[in-house]
TrEMBL record:
Record-given protein name: Radical SAM protein
Sequence ranges assigned to domain Radical SAM core in this UniProt record: 120-340
Family annotation (Pfam families): Radical_SAM (PF04055)
SUPFAM superfamilies: Radical SAM enzymes
Aminoacyl-tRNA synthetase recorded as keyword: no
GO MF entries: catalytic activity; iron-sulfur cluster binding; metal ion binding
Transmembrane segments: 37-55
Native organism: Ginsengibacter hankyongi
Cofactor(s) listed: [4Fe-4S] cluster
Keywords: Iron, Iron-sulfur, Membrane, Metal-binding, S-adenosyl-L-methionine, Transmembrane, Transmembrane helix
Lineage: Bacteria, Pseudomonadati, Bacteroidota, Chitinophagia, Chitinophagales
Entry annotated with the keyword Cell division: no
């Protein structure tokens, strides 16, 4: 893949002076980013797994190969054909938004892709983001749930499980538990992990303030896949200021240590603002994440909702390009082979159309209402609806009013619309 960008000249990362031109494996504590031969072998086996699932499902070999190839090719559309992969225990993780392979969850995710590429009448989803609580003691600059924070939670632990079970029937293979601060409901999270049928990878998205070694160990023991910790700057003071809580940076890194030590996967999530984005900051940030043992970094763009409502926070063109360039560097440049794998959802959305709105995922708020995505504050229908599939189908057909396409991406967006 050609990822050259003429606009920005990149210097090599300072902490990686001895990087060879070839990709090499690099182990960071318990989490490992693998490249080279092991990456190629894993990719080959994953591809064979997809073909095998297609053969079992479609019987007709030509149709099976055709659809398997289509599914494999969509990886390129989502910019995940980078030459490295995360490994933990005996599973491989292509990116933050794909379940580990081999696993039942991975296979379920592939069946959702088959449904889309074959334009099957069956409605399925890949994942949900579920805000399980409104409670949170932080005052983050960008909080999308700002208006709802610390309102009473209306869903019991049983309600949470019932909702996830319903989406399990729709084929989901990944759940991101968010909030509020989801670890305020740790016991309920453990109850969910114990109660939901097999076939879903669970991640919890936390501010990282209150995750002890003991809590991390319990999450692991009950089947959590990984923890996403919000870290918005590599400088302590800047992060604390952004989060509105002194000491939050140190606590986030301490929690990261517990996550890695417990054997969970670690990801960091960064709200990349115009003030933050510079090549020096991005490089320093990625180095901190690597040193902490992270397998993934998620770059989120600020949106004018919640605490940022009516503020002009959208990234300017230059910063979007710079962040995009860094995304490619981190994932595809040999000098960064041991660095965490980056995701940049807003970029994928701009280029390929939105994966939310019931196409791949939906957002469920702490009152149990489905939204097109976490940034769209319109409550659409209850997740407990008895006509859930019908509602998701309508959502796909309606789409989301917030979508903004680049002119270049309109064709690929149309391709996605075909599957709606
Ligand atoms: S962004 Fe998360 S951690 Fe920050 S105030 Fe909102 S819910 Fe709390």
């Amino acid at each position: 893949m050609n990822f050259r960008c003429k606009t920005f000249k990149m210097k090599k990362p300072g902490v990686n002076k001895n990087a060879s031109n070839k990709f090499s494996s690099n182990k960071t504590k318990n989490n490992k980013i693998v490249a080279g031969l092991e990456y190629r072998l894993a990719s080959l086996l994953i591809g064979m797994n997809v073909v095998w699932l297609a053969l079992l499902r479609y019987k007709n070999p030509w149709r099976a190969f055709h659809l398997a190839a289509k599914v494999i090719n969509t990886r390129d559309q989502f910019k995940t054909t980078h030459p490295k992969i995360a490994k933990r225990a005996n599973k491989y993780y292509m990116n933050l938004h794909t379940p580990g392979w081999p696993s039942k969850a991975f296979n379920r995710g592939i069946h959702h892709s088959f449904n889309l590429v074959s334009q099957s009448p069956d409605i399925s989803l890949f994942s949900v983001v579920f805000a399980i609580t409104n409670k949170c003691g932080f005052q983050c600059e960008h909080c999308v749930e700002w208006e709802n924070l610390n309102r009473k939670d209306s869903l019991s632990a049983y309600d949470l499980v019932t909702i996830i079970r319903r989406f399990h029937h729709m084929g989901i293979s990944q759940v991101h538990l968010s909030g509020g601060e989801p670890l305020n409901r740790l016991d309920d999270i453990l109850f969910i992990l114990d109660s939901v049928p097999e076939g879903i990878d669970f991640w919890v998205f936390t501010n990282g303030y209150n995750l002890s070694a003991e809590k991390a160990a319990r999450l692991k023991e009950h089947g959590m896949t990984g923890v996403i910790i919000s870290l918005d700057h590599h400088e302590q003071e800047r992060h604390d200021q952004f989060r509105g809580i002194r000491g939050s940076y140190q606590r986030a890194l301490q929690s990261a240590q517990h996550v890695v030590d417990s054997g969970l996967l670690l990801a960091f999530s960064c709200c990349a603002t115009n003030e933050f984005i510079s090549m020096n900051n991005l490089e320093s940030y990625a180095s901190v994440c690597r040193e902490a043992g992270a397998s993934f970094i998620q770059f989120l763009e600020p949106e004018a909702v919640g605490h940022y409502r009516q503020k002009n926070v959208a990234l300017n063109k230059k910063n979007k390009e710079l962040l995009e360039h860094f995304f490619y560097r981190l994932n595809f440049d040999a000098s960064y082979s041991g660095y965490p794998i980056a995701s940049y959802p807003a970029m994928i959305k701009r280029h390929n159309g939105c994966p939310a709105s019931g196409l791949h995922f939906v957002y469920i708020d702490a009152d149990g209402f489905v939204h097109a995505c976490p940034f769209n504050k319109k409550k659409l229908f209850p997740a407990s609806s008895t006509i859930l599939e019908k509602n998701i189908r309508s959502l796909r057909e309606t789409g989301c009013s917030m979508i903004e396409f680049t002119s270049k991406s309109k064709d690929s967006a149309k391709t996605l619309q075909l599957h709606r």
